[in-house]
Write a structure and sequence with these properties.
The structure is a single chain. The protein is of the alpha/beta class. The protein is built from 15 helices and 16 strands. It has helices at 14-26, 34-48, 50-59, 114-126, 136-148, 161-176, 228-239, 254-257, 263-275, 295-300, 327-330, 357-373, 375-396, 430-453, 472-486; strands spanning 30-32, 81-85, 88-91, 96-99, 154-158, 180-184, 220-223, 244-249, 279-283, 306-310, 321-325, 402-406, 409-413, 456-457, 463-465, 489-491. Strand 9, helix 10 and strand 10 (306-310) form a beta-alpha-beta unit. The longest helix is centred in the C-terminal third of the chain and has 24 residues, at 430-453. It is globular.
């Protein structure tokens, strides 16, 4: 396809990457040299980040863990960010960093884009952030999404991706009359009770869902990513037990493509869902308006019944969530009669602070700017350059690490923590697996700290998002900083 407006030039060979990740978790652990890690702790974090450290210590007195968001938990302590601009972040102590976290993915244009910021300022000068009543930008945002995403005939703004996933499941049950939901193992579809299942590592079931009683998952199950036979087996089983209302997928693979899946698999999910009378729900919280303005679904050539939006839908501002889809299923968020005069049951859906004027104007402006600037393709080209450079460094220093990307969603996997899977036919292996992933998770934190000390902020030390604010010179500088870390990695016994 050679980009053609998308972030992807050539789609990743999912089978090859899977084989490389399989090999990685069989290898001994390679990570940052302990002497170098100690040097980073003492020379960078202690000497150059004292104000961040002091503020976090104070914050722990009033905030559980000291921060309000899981992305902010970093070793050896969270850094306090005071300024975001384009491809860079600035902390309380005056240090600056290349931003490869990108707020978890929404800032496709770059952080605090001036055009979006100006639109928000004008909105605040006139209307204010919220009225509780209808605002013109609610319509403009919905119409823009319908224009760009072929599967979306109607759109409903919500407060978060979690809320959108909850709502999609309710719609699916009303539209199909079925009870059960199947979701891609390891994928994250928010933290609501019924969908907080099988997250991070395929096969975990409810292990990672502390505080949720097991009976809540009675009608929820997971299927293994990349395995259409497993999906069909579970669809066939559900057919005898209330049917399947929805099949949830992340189109580029679970956890934003951390375990990539093939085009054939994604297209197969659509066919199987419809074969068994289920809706296909495409979670594009990360990939929407990042892989392309039509989403990853346009790149893969699928037509999901419902699409989950988040992140960019509010342009990086609060209130980032929504669900869109075919008119017949989205009718369950309205009220009235169908074409035959039959009353349509309405799904329970609320959210006082959903679709605020602020979030809608920010989202509409950001999406328009992404389209105007061809931001998806530009960010994807930067992702390709970064990934090629990382692959060369891995080879240069003879490391078992794996680097790959789906456009501007890049991965540098040093330990393969999220490539493990639980086999419930061998439950006695579970304690060993949990211990091993815990060890590897800690090494991810150490690597993330080393990157940060070199002026690079990542997501969990393994996921890297590029934006349209990057240029080739910046990416090359990022690679020089990565090299200083990778040159100090060794086997950890």
């Amino acid at each position: 396809m050679a980009y053609d407006g998308f972030a992807i030039d050539k789609y990743v060979d999912a089978d090859r990457v899977t084989a490389e990740l399989d090999a990685l978790i069989r290898q001994p652990i390679f990570s940052i040299n302990r002497e170098k890690l100690k040097e980073y702790e003492e020379e960078y974090f202690e000497k150059k980040c004292p104000r961040s450290k002091a503020m976090i210590e104070e914050a722990r007195e009033v905030i559980p863990g000291g921060v309000q968001h899981n992305l902010a938990f970093n070793y050896p302590f969270p850094i306090v960010i005071t300024k975001a601009e384009g491809a860079k972040l600035y902390d309380l102590d005056g240090n600056w960093y290349y931003d490869l976290l990108q707020a978890g993915g929404p800032t496709i244009l770059g952080s605090n884009d001036p055009v979006v910021r100006q639109a928000v300022k004008e909105l605040l000068d006139t209307c204010g952030p919220s009225t509780g009543l209808f605002h013109e930008y609610e319509y403009k945002l919905a119409a823009k999404i319908r224009e760009l995403v072929p599967s979306v005939e109607k759109f409903r703004m919500l407060g978060s991706g979690t809320e959108a996933c909850m709502t999609a499941l309710r719609i699916a049950r009303l539209a199909t009359g079925h009870k059960n939901v199947l979701k891609m193992g390891g994928a994250y579809h928010g933290w609501s009770d019924q969908l907080a299942y099988g997250i991070r590592i395929p096969g975990t079931k409810g292990i990672m869902s502390k505080g949720i009683p097991g009976f809540v998952f009675r009608h929820t199950d997971e299927f293994f990513p990349g395995d259409l036979d497993d999906l069909e087996q579970k669809l066939r089983r559900n057919k005898r037990h209330g049917g399947t209302a929805a099949v949830f997928i992340e189109p580029i693979g679970p956890e934003s493509g951390t375990r990539p899946v093939s085009k054939v698999f994604v297209q197969g999910c659509e066919k199987l869902a419809h074969k068994y009378g289920a809706l296909l729900v495409c979670d594009e919280v990360v990939s929407g308006f990042r892989i392309g303005t039509g989403g990853a679904q346009s790149y893969f050539g699928i037509d999901p019944d419902l699409t989950i939006f988040g992140k960019i839908i509010a342009g990086g501002y609060p209130g980032a969530g929504g669900v869109g889809g075919h008119a017949d299923v989205m009718a369950h968020l309205g009220a009235g009669l169908d074409s035959q005069g039959k009353k349509i049951p309405k799904a329970l859906c609320g959210g006082t602070m959903a679709a605020t004027p602020l979030s809608c104007v920010a989202g509409y402006t950001a999406i328009c700017e992404i389209e105007k600037r061809n931001a998806c393709e530009k960010a994807g080209r930067m992702g390709d350059r970064l990934t090629r450079g990382l692959q060369a460094l891995i080879q240069k220093y003879d490391l078992p690490f794996v680097a790959f990307n789906q456009g501007s969603v890049c991965h540098l996997d040093s330990v393969g923590t999220m490539h493990y899977a639980i086999n419930w036919k061998r439950p006695w292996e579970l304690p060993k697996l949990l211990k091993e992933t815990g060890i590897r998770q800690k090494e991810m934190e150490y690597m993330g700290a080393a990157y940060m000390a070199e002026g690079i902020i990542t997501l969990a030390g393994s996921r890297l998002y590029t934006s349209a604010a990057y240029d080739e010179e910046m990416i090359d500088d990022v690679l020089r900083r990565f090299e200083r870390v990778l040159a100090c990695c060794e086997r950890i016994d």
